[in-house]
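Worked problem 6 (solution included).
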Amino acid sequence: MKMVLIAVNIAIEPQVVERLSALGLHSYTEWPRLTGVGETSGPHLDSHVWPGANAVIAVVAPDDKARALMDEIRELRKTLGREGIKAFLLPVEDIT
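Solution. The predicted structure is:
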């Protein structure tokens, strides 16, 4: 099992959820409104000076589906990367 942790600009979050659904990944946890600064996307600090915010989505999936999701995120980054999207693949050692 793997966890895919996705940080994404809230403006493009629906496109990530669509990709999850297309892969049959219907269970996830989302932190819907966070702030941060991306290396290429810049600040999303939810303020008048730096508008915008991010969401973080955590998905636990079998290895093959997690890798397929990473591939989908790579594709989104090619076209939407400047908006802000990044994913991390983490091992899951135990679930209770």
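Discussion: The beta strands are 2-9, 29-34, 36-38, 42-44, 54-61, 85-91.
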